[in-house]
Amino acid sequence: MSNKIHHLVQTMFPPDGSGLKPYEWMVNPTRQQQWIDNQGIFLWLAFFFSEIGAGLYFVSLFYEFKAGLILGWLITLILGGAIHILYLGNPLRAWRMIMKPKTSELSRGIWIIGVFAVMGFLQIISGSSFNVVFNIIMGILCLLIISHGFATMNVIRALPAWSSTMVLPLSVISGVWVGYQLLQFMFVVSKPAEIASGMEVWAEVFFFAYVLCIILYAWGTYHSSEIGKESIIMQGTGELKRISLIGVGGLGVALPLILTLIMWGGDTNAFWIFLRLASVFAGDLAVRYVIMKSAVYKPLLTRQ
């Protein structure tokens, strides 16, 4: 136990002086580290893959595309689910956490992924995969998984960057937008060109809704409190500045906007769709990273 405490102290207060000083703890706005630094990076990846997999599954229901269901199911379970377990680490610790769905949002999310795994498998092997009952059940499960990551963060009221009212809408549109891009790329390489071209109208709708959610999240968090303002300022300065400018602004917004305008009206081709997909992937990872990395706690003590 003493070794664990020593390791925690070394992590919070690096001896080389590069981090917080002990006397600054919870006096200045203090950044959370548990869910993004070191092993916490697995949680960032787990949320991303489980949500885009569920997003692909969700949009595939509307197009009755079984290959999309299979790929979405595999991404959610193999990448999202497995990385969740990597984050939890010790099997005994993981089991204790999973068995607390009444008190843990993370536990509830893993249980939902488990139900999704069983029901999704039954839908995939069923001869009548796209009947109304299956579609409704799986659609609800997909939306719960898509919002699972940010919902887990949203309940932590001490972190305004996570408890913003725009966090959940952003998570839903993010999962659907990235999932839709995956589906459109699958169609452009396996179906007649007219199908992918016809999907471009909804791609434009989802993209602009995604950008609007990012803007509303930043604006709302900035004006919510002094600590919320601190988080947004942190996203545009210091070590997060480059990720915000290149990742969020460039790959998440600017490049997809340019490609969307190029393909405006359905003038699509496989290269442009693939390039936008790759850009959207990187951009959405950057959005999630800066939101998780910039969350700061309100000081317990006020400085005189």
List strands and helices in order, with pairings:
Elements: H1 2-12, E1 30-31, H2 41-63, H3 66-88, H4 91-98, H5 105-125, H6 132-146, H7 148-154, H8 160-163, H9 167-190, H10 193-224, H11 226-235, H12 241-262, H13 270-293, E2 296-297
Q: Could you characterize what this model shows?
A:
39% of the residues are buried. Strands 1-2 form a two-stranded antiparallel sheet. The mean pLDDT is 85. The chain is globular. It has two domains: 34-155; 160-297. The chain has 304 residues and is mainly α. The chain is built from 13 helices and two strands.
Quick recap:
The chain is mostly helical and 304 residues long.
Q: List segments where confidence is low: pLDDT < 50 over at least 5 consecutive residues.
A: none
H/E order of the elements?
Answer: HEHHHHHHHHHHHHE
Shape: globular
Q: What is the share of helical residues? A: over 70%
* Ends apart, CA distance between termini: 36 Å
Q: Please give the domain count.
A: 2
Query: Order of strands side by side in the largest beta sheet?
Result: 1-2
Oligomeric grouping of the chains: single chain
- In this structure, how is the largest beta sheet organized? 2 strands, antiparallel
- Give the beta-strand count: 2
- Summed over residues and divided by their number, the pLDDT gives a mean of 85
Q: Tell me the number of helical segments per DSSP (H or I, 4 or more residues long).
A: 13
Radius of gyration: 21 Å
Secondary-structure-based class equals mainly alpha
Q: Give the DSSP E fraction (strand runs of 2 or more residues).
A: under 5%
